[in-house]
Amino acid sequence: MLKIAFLSVFYPYRGGIAQSNAQIYRAFERQGHELKAWNFSMQYPSILFPGKTQYVAEGDQADKISSARTLNSINPLSYIKTANQIKAYQPDILVIRFWMPFFGPALGYVAGALKKRGTKVVAVIDNLVPHEQRIGDRQLTKYFLNRCSAFIVMSDVVEEDLKAVMPNARYRLYPHPLYDQFGEKLEKAEARSKLPVDMEQKVILYFGLIRKYKGLDILIEAFDQLSEAYELLIVGEPYGDFQPYQDLIDKNKNKNRIKTFTRYVPDEEVPKFFSAADVCVLPYRSATQSGVIAIAYHFDLPVIVTDVGGLRGTVEPYNAGIVVDKAEAGLFAEAIQSYFEHSQQKEKAKAIQVFKEKYTWDGMAKEIIEI
Asked: Are 168 and 198 within one domain?
């Protein structure tokens, strides 16, 4: 049994990072380790946060991991306080989640302080190169990396980014396990009745934050090229102005079969969208890995993705969807038509089981310990 400190974002913060941190935390518990979580007292200043709220809303389902909320991302005094508290805990391992250079100073300071003490610092890395880059990102990332002992990366593109910055890095590649906190898949008829969506329609799902690099505009334009047999569900919170997308919808010949749910979707509502859909489409312009794929696979839902970042490696080896060469509307329209014309849903849904069995949160926790 090891003593583990886990520094990242947990409840009451919402979103995929907090949810997956809870999954890793519970996996450590199941394996019998002693552990304690440290959290942010302030993650982002409100002025820098593009969404409506950073926090779980009343009534949302959430794994309420108990944590010490000490780290303020822009207050150096809190870095010292957090490092001192974790040092007093005397962990064998400090686990830190890293997904954005903005957090490099805060997380890097704590990592360095614990590494000097002799604690092994393992970083679980979602992204090293941000989708929307800013001056200084590379320096902030390097500051953090140099203060860690080892790394878990979740896609081959992050693996290459890590080797470019730190050629001798000690790391392991372990793909993003599935989100399984959403409960069971619903019967398709039940799920569609909740939206509502006609049982005869071929239903395409776009799910997740709406940001430029995620290519929702490409999917809307692709949908314009499809027949009346298709329906599009757009589900997710816009980070920025949704009006440009609404303008595309308004002039789309199939606009009457586009349903929008432009808000944060709490966990209890997630099953109806994925259970109602026939395929999940991710027309990303850039990516590392995708938490949306992890949700889709949980519901046995195949995906159509762009060949960017590590998406091909999460889809193609398992025959769990279609990989499109470029983020272009015409290519996505062709891929969607091909998927339905060749009745690929059952075949690819069955193939997803291989991924489910191979990559688990318990498996990731073991990789962290072993590295």
From this structure: no
Tell me the pTM. Answer: 0.79
Report the CATH number that the domain containing residue 110 is assigned in CATH: 3.40.50.11930
Residues 246 and 155 in one domain: no
C-alpha–C-alpha distance, residues 192 and 273, integer Å: 8
Cα 77 versus chain centre, distance: 30
Query: Distance between CA 185 and CA 203 in Å, rounded?
Result: 16
pLDDT value at 43 more than 70: yes
pLDDT, tens digit (0-9, with 9 covering 90-100), for 109-135: 999 999 999 999 999 999 887 656 678
Q: Rounded to an integer, what distance in angstroms lies between the CA atom of residue 224 and that of residue 318?
A: 30
The helix/strand/coil state of 261 is: strand
Shared-domain flag, residues 321 and 269? yes
CA distances from 192 to 237, 302, 318 (A): 21, 18, 28
CA neighbor of 38 nearest in space, from 88, 76, 102, 2: 88
Looking at the structure of the chain, the number of domains it has is 2
Angle CA 201–207–210, to nearest 5: 125
Whether 304 contacts 335, CB under 8 Å:
yes
Is there a single domain that holds both residue 132 and residue 230? no
Print the domain residue range for 114.
Answer: 3-173
End-to-end CA distance of the chain: 15
Residue that is last in its domain, among 111, 140, 173: 173
pLDDT in the model for residue 290: 80
